[in-house]
Amino acid sequence: MKTRIGYIPNEEEEEESLLTAKVDSEIEKLRKRRDERTLTYTDEEKDIKHKIQIESSLKS
Q1: Predicted pLDDT of residue 29
Q2: Distance (Å, whole) CA 38 – CA 51
Q3: Which pLDDT tens digit goes with each residue over 1-38?
Q4: Are the CB atoms for 49 and 40 separated by under 8 Å?
Q5: Positive/negative CA dihedral, 46, 42, 59, 57
Q6: pLDDT at residue 54 is higher than 60
Q7: To bridge 48 with a disulfide, which of 2, 19, 22, 43 should be the other Cys (CB 3.0-4.6 Å)?
């Protein structure tokens, strides 16, 4: 009878993966917020894309 060897997690790698996932998640949230505060206008005649950063003094 063969003995099945299961997955033995490496605690350091697992912890690093969790930290990386959390950092990636926070970066994505910041990108979404940044995109929400950017107005994009395309001048079709001149084929120029303008991006305008919208700033606000309101804090959430």
Answers
A1: 83
A2: 6
A3: 556 666 666 777 777 788 888 888 888 888 777 767 77
A4: yes
A5: positive
A6: yes
A7: 43
pLDDT at site 16 = 79
The DSSP result for 6-51, as a single string, is: -----HHHHHHHHHHHHHHHHHHHHHHHHHHTEEEEEETTTTEEEE
Measured at the alpha carbon of residue 45, what is the angle toward residues 49 and 42, in degrees to the nearest 5? 25
Buried b (16+ CB within 10 A) or exposed e, 26-35: eeeeeeeeee
Six-digit token string for 37: 């505060």
Q: Which two tokens stand for residue 35?
A: 């995109």
Contact criterion met (CB below 8 Å) for 38 and 51? yes
